[in-house]
Automatic annotation (TrEMBL):
Belongs to the isocitrate and isopropylmalate dehydrogenases family. Residues 5-368 form the Isopropylmalate dehydrogenase-like domain. The keyword NADP does not apply. Coiled coil: none annotated. Keywords: Oxidoreductase. InterPro entries: IsoPropMal-DH-like_dom. It comes from the Bacteria. This is Isocitrate/isopropylmalate dehydrogenase family protein.
Length: 372
């Protein structure tokens, strides 16, 4: 077996605990990995004015795979207040590391598998097996977010204001605007990715989630591309749903879905809903994939209120490791991790607090490792 050069970026808070307790999985499975730890997160922002130092980019570049555990991010004012004194006047500004990675590495697809685990006391249904694919680089999070509204845009909006619009603005200071950017190439590659995922993994259908009855122009733009792309995948059923209805049906009938694919913000919300259906953030893994690069991370953040206590669920990190291995061709080992996590949960003896038990992170991780 080829040695996998793996960059591991534990990050902040509980990221450090779940990384430590999960990493023995490679030795246990006999997968040859060369693990190199890298710096990322809040501490590096405070000390160096950059949460992703240049040496970390070099490490990612020279690795076959990258796993991140969890990173703390804070709003602008707090980020500047915590920055070391000597860096405050240098013009540096905080940009979330995961956004930096997604944009710089062109990782357009955020992939979140949602599945039932027999005996999981916290999941909403026993018949879930679907994947939420969220566009990662454009849509409403493309970065066109303004307050005050730029003059050109303010004038444009005032000019376009219809007689029925009830809002009033006297000046650009009286409003804020976020633009939803959908590009032809972006929507096309996302949809191809979704149909290929359905085909390769045998999902029963692709559901495009948007709000075309309200966002009529950008919605129709996407529907036209959807029809074109879907025609290239005969035999894979597809449908269009409004995002609000999807949220309801994911709860009422999760077994209906195969691949749910959506733009950035709608997908962001639905993918956390997916984690909730599974029983919480302690169980949800994710992959961020582009044409060439990829990185893998649990869906959860750094959970500062639990950090250092050793009580959080390591399963999301184990399942993230499983996704990483699967992506790099270690399918049997990836499946073995998934089975080990499921078996510990099904047995129900060594569970962390979020699954109704009182085991520590290490105890649950050791129980999972023992199943391998
Ligand atoms: N991709 C990322 O790295 C990422 C994702 C989300 C949030 N964040 C950051 O993390 C920090 C905290 O954010 P937050 O509190 O909104 O979200 P969070 O995911 O860190 O935690 C929310 C809550 O979920 C539960 N939880 C999370 N992970 C768990 C686990 N493994 N086991 C058991 N319970 C778990 C805890 O109750 C926790 O308080 C913020 O700085 C935020 O920006 C980072």
């Amino acid at each position: 077996m080829k040695t996998l050069r793996l960059a591991v970026l534990p990050g902040d808070g509980i990221g450090i605990e779940v990384t430590e307790t999960t990493l023995p999985v490679f030795e246990k499975l006999g997968v040859p990995v060369d693990v190199q730890f890298g710096d990322i997160g809040w501490e590096f922002w405070k000390k160096e004015g950059n949460p992703v130092p240049e040496r970390t980019w070099e490490l990612i570049e020279s690795s076959d795979a990258t796993m991140i555990a969890a990173i703390t991010s804070k709003p602008h004012a707090q980020a500047m207040a915590e920055l070391s004194q000597e860096l405050r006047e240098t013009g540096v500004s905080y940009l979330s590391p995961v956004i930096q990675l997604r944009q710089r590495l062109g990782l357009f697809a955020n992939v979140r598998p949602v599945f039932s685990i027999p005996g999981n006391p916290r999941q909403i249904a026993d018949n879930m097996n679907f994947t939420v694919i969220r566009e990662n680089t454009e849509g409403l999070y493309a970065g066109f977010d303004f307050s005050p509204i730029p003059d050109e845009l303010f004038e444009f909006i005032q000019r376009k204001k219809g007689a029925r619009s009830s809002w009033q603005m006297e000046s650009p200071m009286d409003g804020a605007v976020a633009l939803r950017l959908m590009t032809r190439d972006g929507v096309k590659r996302l949809l191809h990715f979704a149909f290929q995922c359905a085909r390769d993994q045998g999902y029963p259908r692709v559901t495009w989630v948007d709000k075309p009855n309200v966002m009529r122009e950008s919605g129709q733009f996407c529907l036209d591309i959807l029809e074109e792309v879907a025609a290239e995948y005969p035999g894979i059923p597809w449908e269009v749903q409004n995002v609000d209805a999807t949220a309801m049906w994911m709860v009422r009938d999760p077994g209906h879905f195969g691949v749910i694919v959506s733009e950035n913000q709608f997908g962001d919300i639905l993918s956390d809903l997916g984690a909730g259906l599974m029983g919480g953030l302690g169980l949800a893994p994710s992959a961020n994939l582009g044409a060439e690069k990829a990185y893998f991370e649990p869906v959860h953040g750094s959970a500062p209120k639990h950090a250092g206590k050793g009580i959080v669920n390591p399963s999301a990190m184990f399942l993230t490791t499983s996704l990483t291995l699967k992506h790099h061709g270690y399918t049997d080992q990836a499946d073995a991790i998934q089975r080990a996590v499921a078996s510990v949960i099904e047995e129900g003896k060594v569970l962390t607090y979020d699954l109704g038990g009182n085991a520590t992170t290490r105890e649950m991780a050791d129980a999972i490792l023992a199943r391998l």
